[in-house]
Amino acid sequence: MNHIISFVRIAARGTPLGLLAAVFLATGCATTQYDPVTGREVRNLYTLDEDIKLGRTVVADVITEMKDQGVPINRDLAKLATLSNMMHRIAAVSHYPDLPYTVTLFHTNIVNAACAPGGQLLFWEGLYDPEIGLVKDDTELAAVMAHEIAHATARHTTKTLTRTMPVSMLFLIGAIAAELTDQSDVALALGASFLIYEGLVLPRYSRQDEHEADRIGLFYMAEAGYDPRAAARVWRRVHEQQGDPGLFKYLSSHPTHRDRYRALERAMPEAMALYAETTGGYPPDYSP
């Protein structure tokens, strides 16, 4: 990646054709290849090793930020062991069981979970808080974890970086060129346009990734022996509590809660069949 960035900086001091050449050189490095996780042809500038390195940097930054805020980390050894066992159980049936999976637990009432590129999981205690939490039991917690692991195996972060690089670089190079020619009004306009692009176009990709991680995670948890109905139950409950965001859903980086549980329910028969195959039968309260 460094050689691409250097080329862009040099080209930014050159001609418009040089600027465009830099963009096409950068994006041309991403070859199209079949992705066994999503079943689609995808482009990614990053290698799997670079995913892991990027993830480690992200996690180190989050840990530093949490420590600066005085948040205790990994103090509840029993819950940490539960999360770790859950992580290994789900990761073992994922498309990339050999990623260097880790889990870090933050003792604060933030309701959140995340997975950095390369399989490094972050959980905040508020996720399972009895009053404000998202999940009510370990099976629902497994649903969240399977979803986050799916983000890592589908490599959503680096695919998004690859996908958005051409537009991002064009805005950046245009702004640099405008500054170099003292066209500050053009630079400001390009900056404003990029903010609109980030706000309206990028969330669409993110919503697509969320749906994809929901579906992949549903099958991961089923194959790991967790009742996949828990995934739909989480989002149905949140929808019943919070309702529909209306037009604001188009500005959201996530699908609506109703869209999520309905999509999960459509995939449920297939997921339950996989769960039955894994565990030796359907639950008594489920009729295929």
Descriptive key words:
single chain, 288 residues, mainly alpha, three-stranded mixed sheet, two-stranded antiparallel ribbon, 61% helix
Task: Write a structural description.
With 288 residues, this protein is mainly α. The chain has a domain at 48-155 and 204-279. The chain is built from ten helices and five strands; from the N terminus they run ααββααβββαααααα. The chain has helices at residues 2-11, 16-28, 48-68, 77-91, 138-153, 156-180, 184-200, 202-223, 229-242, 257-279; strands at residues 32-35, 40-43, 102-106, 113-116, 120-124. The strands form two sheets. It has a three-stranded mixed sheet with strand order 3-5-4. A hairpin with a 3-residue loop joins strand 4 (113-116) and strand 5 (120-124). Helix 5 (138-153) packs across helix 8 (202-223). The model is unreliable at 1-28, 167-180, 186-205 and 245-252 (pLDDT under 50).
**Main sheet overview:** 3 strands, mixed
- Counting DSSP H or I runs of 4 or more residues, the number of helices is 10
- The Cα radius of gyration reads 21 Å
Strand content: 5-15%
3D shape: globular
Strand arrangement across the biggest beta sheet: 3-5-4
Instruction: Summarize model confidence as the mean pLDDT.
Output: 79
**Alpha-beta content class:** mainly alpha
Topology:
Elements: H1 2-11, H2 16-28, E1 32-35, E2 40-43, H3 48-68, H4 77-91, E3 102-106, E4 113-116, E5 120-124, H5 138-153, H6 156-180, H7 184-200, H8 202-223, H9 229-242, H10 257-279
Helix pairs in contact: 1-2, 2-6, 4-5, 5-8, 5-9, 6-7, 8-10, 9-10
